[in-house]
Amino acid sequence: MAVLSLTRAEAEERARLLTIQRYDVAVDLTDLPTGTRVVCTSTIAFSCHEPGATTFADCVAEIESATLNGVALPGAVDGRIVLSGLAADNVLEVTTVIADSTAAQGVRKAVDPADGRVYFWTDLPPDVTRYVWACFDQPDLKAPHAFTVTAPAEWLVLTNSGDPAVESAGEARRWTFPPTPPLSTYNLVINAGPYYELRREGAGHDLGLFARQSLAPILDRDAEELFTLTTQGHEFFAEVFGMPFPQRKYDQVFAPEFAGAMENYGCITWMDWFLRRSTPTKAEWDLFSRYLLHELAHQWFGNIVTMRWWDDLWLNEAFAEFASNWAAVRVTSYSDAWAAHLAGEKLKAYLVDQGPTTHPIRQPVNDVAEGAATFDAITYPKGASVLQQLMTYVGETAFSQGLTKYFAEHAWSNATLEDLITAIAGETDRDLTRWSAGWLDEAGTDRLTLEQDDDAWTLVAEGPNGEPRPQVLAVGVYQRGPGALERIALVEVEVTGRRTPLELPAGADLYLVNDEDLTFASTRPDANTRDGFFEDAAGLPTPLSRAVAVATAWDMLITGEATAGEAVRCLTGVVTVETSESLIEPHLNRAVDVALLWSPESVRDELAAEVAASCRALAANPRLRKVALRGFARTAADLDSVAWLQSEAGDDVDLQWRALIRKAQLKADTTAEVRALLARDQDPEAWVSELTVRAAIPEHDEKQAVWERLVTEQDVPLGSLHQVTAAFWSPGQDELLKPFVAKFLELVPEISTWGQMAATTYTRTLIPVFGVGEGFAEKIQALAADAEPVVRANLLEKTDLLTRMLRARA
């Protein structure tokens, strides 16, 4: 069946015509312990403002029965049920059947390999709810939803609202939940299964954590930190948004086989990869703290106030990303969150924003499929950084007061960017019209460069189309002190044109453009200090100033203005002196990536050895030992080095697996060691680690077997796909990998049919990084032209990255 994507014009007409009173959704999960069938009955009460009119409801799932005001309807065409002759008040009732919930869009029956227990979840991002039950699948037709779920007697059932009435229903139990507040269809969820549960009171809320039974010890290990972060986030957002989260119950579910995270109102779903099998490092906790606060911020930005249409999707995601960093710095122990944001996500945004898939943060979206393709580094980290610049531009007090006004006015309804800008503009004397146009409606990255003429300094600012965006930033001036560089001045700069005269102290050793990381711009050192910049970065006195220098070095690498060697020396120098554990790991990972993926083959071993030496030195620090040994596992030069790593790893199973991956890359036989480690490893997904070792083996038959698991069987959890594919496309195996580059090209037309999340993950992780030859980029571009928007964007983005790598290798 062909399935149409809802267009903006259709959504506007349907919103003009209809008001949705409520949904009552009954879901039967009783077949799942032994079968795969799920039955849903969606009953929708709605009014029509033009009686007699015709519209449609969305439904892609198999329809068992459908009635409108008691009259039977024919089935759906192109995913739409035609509703004609509407009355002023109407009731649509549709029963749908999902025959195979192990392979359907929007739902999943997952079986825990550790104990055979069955779990169920829904995942309903844009355009997907209609694959599960009938609905009006657009963000501005919000309505209360009341769920009734019949499930096996031993299961727990969770959805958006808490405190259900539970009663026996034969051998099952029926859970009847109170109606939610008015929500969009993409904010809904059902999680069910024999979950392990922990609860705690926090910030006036009843907080819940859930994981499959086999991961109970890991949830116990992490619960204190998870509850603490959730409580801190609730308290902070209630204050700065002027509105506490209005529901008492707030649950977070770590679900098997889930991909990513989803901000469902009152009941977040996480892939349980986030429950790290190995004790998390500080950097892993830093990252997850920001993810947790991101999903919590969505309760206000996205759920309570929802965008009217998908052209403002960026506002939901960018604001949640911004707010997570804001909260982390202000109220949690992860006070280097903005620096970690720069070292990780923001550097990805700089790359994408200077590539073929760049787009304005806000852009026209003609249909939902186009909207789904904008979940990218422009929408998330660039958008978050732009909102940070907005707060800098108007001041934090005015910014927070504007948000309070915004939520008070638009709670439980839909709003637009103009509504937010109007609310903030009312709290400041600044004119935000030009600011909004430059930052939100124009693609690309500004370039900021220092020029010196005798003792006169000028900040030269170039926008993507000439004139730079209005922005406030700072230039740090550093003089060499007894042990390191010391900042002797921090000069605030307001950019209003292409050339801004500056008064800077003369004769300093380093001038750092965008010190404090207040804006989103590509920066360059002045010509006089350029050559020493890469080594001087390590002398900067704070994690954030060092991260800004790393960002400059990275941007110079991706634009061909610095070599891989210069970037590696900058990163290893910074890592050696870094005091923030939240930054050491991302910096070290980037150093490894530059050495292995960006360097010419003639110096790859040399640069990898430099990184390995830094790792070995860092490993002497007990707090950094795990992070350092992880980096060493990717760069160990020979089997003697791997043996040292295995000795150092001791009982750390995760490190032992990493050692075996490297050992396999070095052509050693790992069969017996893999078998022994697999027997020791208590992780339910230990088989993925075994597969990763096989993926690294430089033999065609092993590569072919792993390719079958990845592509034909597709049984690798999406959250673990990257670790397998990273080993598959190992450096130094180019000739062996060439046939699989051809296989990937053959696969591209099929990937679009795998569903949104799978298609996104596979195109991001399976695309080759070695073994490609002349014409690869052109072939990908030709294939991308016919792909779904989300696949096309990912293919072009990753191909641009590869093209830059190949240029650096050359």
Automatic annotation (TrEMBL):
Gene3D superfamilies attached here? Neutral Protease Domain 2, tricorn interacting facor f3 domain
Which family does the record claim for this protein?
Answer: Belongs to the peptidase M1 family.
Where does the record place the ERAP1-like C-terminal domain? Answer: 510-787
Cofactor (UniProt): Zn(2+)
> Keywords, A to Z?
Aminopeptidase, Hydrolase, Metal-binding, Metalloprotease, Protease, Zinc
Q: What is this protein called?
A: Aminopeptidase N
| The Peptidase M1 membrane alanine aminopeptidase domain, residue ranges | 234-435
Q: Which InterPro entries does the annotation name?
A: Aminopeptidase_N-like_N (IPR045357), Aminopeptidase_N-like_N_sf (IPR042097), ERAP1-like_C_dom (IPR024571), Pept_M1_aminopeptidase (IPR012778), Peptidase_M1 (IPR001930), Peptidase_M1_aminopeptidases (IPR050344), Peptidase_M1_dom (IPR014782), Peptidase_M4/M1_CTD_sf (IPR027268)
Which residue intervals define the domain Aminopeptidase N-like N-terminal in the entry? 116-186
Q: Which reaction(s) does its UniProt entry say it catalyses? A: Release of an N-terminal amino acid, Xaa-|-Yaa- from a peptide, amide or arylamide. Xaa is preferably Ala, but may be most amino acids including Pro (slow action). When a terminal hydrophobic residue is followed by a prolyl residue, the two may be released as an intact Xaa-Pro dipeptide
> EC number(s)?
3.4.11.2
